[in-house]
Amino acid sequence: xxxxxxxxxxxEQSFKFYKxxxxxxxxxxxxxxxxxxxxxxxxxxxxxxxxxxxxxxxIPDELFPFEYWEAxxxxxxxxxxxxxxxxxxxxxxxxxxxxxxANKGGNYLLKVSQTSEEVIPEHSVSILREVGKWMKSNGExxxxxxxxxxxxxKRRSYFIEL
Length: 162
Description:
mainly alpha; about 40% helix
């Protein structure tokens, strides 16, 4: 479950919002954007969530081998449909995001906006089809990155425990 409530929420309220979905679905995963905004006093008060949303259109510089995280991106520059936003990322640009995020152990949350008629713009459809073709041929590499990182993390944690 992806929350996008980053300001004006007290720690107690944030934690309540975090716990509610577990009452309906115990296997749910919830991000950490519940009240973690510019108005908090103590970051520790908001230190919960099953995975870390690293920020919009940002890939962290460092590797996070023991943490579940995601990066959020768009096919163009808008989070909602804007008919005048024609600055779409190229297929190679979308693949660059996907590969770099996966290479650091993250998940890529890609926002694809639709019109008020619930139509995905053809340019977005074209990009997604091309990325899909690439994934059909090369997707195993993307999925293996994460599996290998988890295995490596297990080996390192075992080594540390010795």
